[in-house]
Amino acid sequence: MAHGEAGVRAGRAMTRRVMNGKDANPEIPEKEGPLTPGLPNATPSGVGQQAGPALEPRPDPLARLPLPFQAVDYGLKGYHLEAAVQPDQVVSAAQHLDREGFSLDTITGVDWLAQGQMEVVYDYFHPSRGLRAVVRTRIPRENPEIPTLSQVFPGANWHERETHDFFGIRFLGHPDLSPFLLPEDADYHPLRKDFEA
Amino acid sequence: MIVNEPTCSSAAGTAPRETFVLNLGPQHPATHGVLRVKMTMDGEYVLRAEPVCGYIHRMQEKMGENRTYAQYLPNTSRIDYLSAMTYTHGFVGAVERAARIVVPPRAEYIRVITSELNRISSHLVWWGAFLLDLGGFTPLLYAFDDREMILDLLEGITGARLTYCYYRFGGLYNDVDEAFLRGARQFVLHMRPRLKMYRALVTENIILRKRLIGIGPISAELCRKYGATGPVVRGSGVPYDVRKAEPYSVYRELDFDIPAFPEGDSMARYLVRMEEMAQSLRIIEQALDKLPDGPVMAEKVPRVLKLPAGDYCYAVEAARGRFMVRLVSDNKEIPYRVKLRTPCLSNLSLFEEASRGMLLADALALLGSLDMVIPDIDR
What we know:
The complex is a heterodimer.
Chain A: H1 5-9, H2 12-20, E1 70-71, H3 74-77, E2 81-84, H4 90-99, E3 103-112, E4 117-125, E5 132-140, E6 145-147, H5 156-167, E7 170-172
Parallel strand pairs in A: 2-5, 6-7
Antiparallel strand pairs in A: 1-2, 3-4, 4-5
Chain B: E1 20-24, E2 36-42, E3 45-52, H1 60-63, H2 69-76, H3 84-99, H4 105-133, H5 138-158, E4 167-168, E5 171-172, H6 178-203, H7 206-212, H8 220-226, H9 231-234, H10 242-245, H11 266-290, E6 310-318, E7 321-329, E8 337-341, H12 343-349, H13 351-354, H14 360-370, H15 374-378
Antiparallel strand pairs in B: 1-2, 2-3, 4-5, 6-7, 7-8
Helix pairs in contact in B: 2-3, 3-4, 4-5, 4-11, 4-14, 5-6, 6-11, 11-14
């Protein structure tokens, strides 16, 4: 930089004040301490930190939750914990995992045609503990209805819309179940096993 | 609808506010593909920006249910076409996990080298295109010049320039040659000073800084609620990276840092990606040093795979964040269900909330800083 070097070097804080006349970033909350000792949160300097080796899960790190979580061999399955719950428990399960600091990974369905059931699978990951948890439930295939998680995790909105597109599972209380990836007039559900193109 | 910005209202809160709908896309340069955003505007301010997805939907997950695992593998490099190596890694990883195939170490090291090269080339495309969004044309030419070296290197061993299908269940399609190893080392030496030059040319440029600093702040909590990953969450100060959180391949044996910047603004996301390129160079250099001899393919991988019944997940850190494959097998040659969890879908889903009350030009800077690849959302 041949010119303006000093101004640039003055740093981000000053540029911000110049721009907005106030702290430009008021929404970012005070950082909480790390959830697990040994895993650092971001330092203000930013660069150069290391999350360290992923912690092996303790036998059942979510044992105190009123959910039937069972430890799974991560090396074989790709997740640490799984719980099969009743359809009306998925929201409370999401609330518990939300309080534990989990983030919603994805929501999807599996059509078990032979058993006349739809499986709904909720994947969670923990942004600082490196944990993966799976919550699954089954609902009748003829009347696939289940409460929405979008009030707990707003990110569930799109995942549920997609699952409704593909499987016809109705998420009760969802703000908008109009086709998400399918055409706007789609009235078919292509991932149902009896779907014929 | 409440607008956050105090200076915003055109009528200063007196007359009834007149709003209009601005349709952005589906063919618009700022959306980098066929994404449509329905924007309700109050003058220059965004009241609500609703992404409309699905214009390039190909039903990738249904395709997974009517062909064998090997036949489906090339599909996975066409989801996020800029990050094809990591995506095929996610799929072969899921199959290898289910079939309990042990991959030879040489193959894993080469996977890391090629994946990190791919990450750099993906970040270079983002860098050039993002700056193009902001009105700077020149950096794109530098970025594509450097990216060309990566594409040539990868073309030499994989035969493809973009949609690689180099990883196979149990290893690699073929071993790397001397030219590739020499070229990869040369690229590392070439790229380090280039990153310095990028810093002087662009990162420290006062115009860029004024466009990005403090623009589009996203809090760590918002990222968590929406499942945002990759440079987006790391730009909000959370050092979440699948390579550390759920170490796969040989990342455990390599020394690298996860850059995270706590500011949460578009500049933070920019800096994360710039720093990540330097870290990828570090990884490539170490992996080249440690590259063991030996086969690149596991022995006795059956030609037709039948995975044991059950479900299997495998997550990788793609250039845009966490990509996860969830396979459900019923012990047949064809998968019962293939779920693709793609980072761009979750990262874009927070846009509506994050862009509320922003100036249109700033909202587009925010959209660019999220680094969207539309086929990755629509699948």
